[in-house]
Specification:
Radius of gyration: 16 Å
Low-confidence stretches: none
Structural class: alpha+beta
Number of domains: 1
Helix content: 10-25%
Number of strands: 12
Order of helices and strands: HEEEEEEEHHEEEEE
Length: about 200
């Protein structure tokens, strides 16, 4: 078992939680992706009840982000299962292989599926507004949000009326390919979602 998941089940590793903001889920679809590459933003196959849910970062002794966690319930997970997207089947994975999302900018995020569409709209809007002065979605949108929290995380509001947002955070030691896992309680209900950034 991955050390991060073991910590969440038994709290035996030297990690601590840092609560950040709530994530608003309105469609029931959850996405974990690099916030600069929307083509990798297919939602997970499981749906959750729409609502506002707390997000925490799991930090090691050096305050590197070992994982990101959405908590859907007060119930504790007793096991984890890899989060998959439509067409992905865990039984088809070779040993030690994972399904996950690629990170190429040192950042990952959680968002509602509809929030990702709003991010794409925002990028197009910035391109139209700035023209040749547009650098990138990171430079022209995300950087300012991350600077508010020492470049560790940022809260990008995409629809103020519905409080629709994307929570963006540092992905461990940087770029890589990272799996997410559903936390399942003793009754078989989904109680959490965690992305493991492979630093343990």
């Amino acid at each position: 078992m991955q050390k991060l998941l073991s910590f969440l089940l038994h709290e035996e590793e030297n990690l601590h939680y840092q609560s950040i903001e709530n994530i608003t889920i309105i469609s029931g679809n959850v996405v974990a992706c690099d916030p600069n590459f929307f083509e990798e933003s297919t939602p997970f196959q499981k749906n959750i009840q729409p609502g506002s849910y707390p997000v925490s970062l799991l930090l090691d002794k050096e305050n590197s982000v070992a994982g990101s966690l959405i908590t859907f319930s007060n119930q504790k997970p007793v096991r984890f299962e890899m989060a998959t997207k439509p067409g992905q089947h865990i039984k088809n994975l070779e040993k030690n292989m994972i399904f996950g999302h690629p990170v190429d900018t040192g950042l990952s995020c959680f968002a509602d599926g509809s929030a990702v569409l709003k991010m794409e709209e925002l990028e197009r809007k910035k391109i139209n507004e700035l023209g040749d002065d547009f650098i990138s979605f990171y430079d022209d949108v995300l950087e300012e949000k991350l600077e508010e929290n020492n470049d560790m995380w940022g809260n990008l509001i995409l629809d103020e009326e519905h409080n629709l947002n994307a929570l963006i955070f540092s992905s461990g030691y940087g770029d890589g390919f990272y799996a997410s896992y559903w936390g399942i309680d003793e009754k078989g209900h989904v109680v959490s979602l965690v992305t493991d950034f492979n630093i343990l």
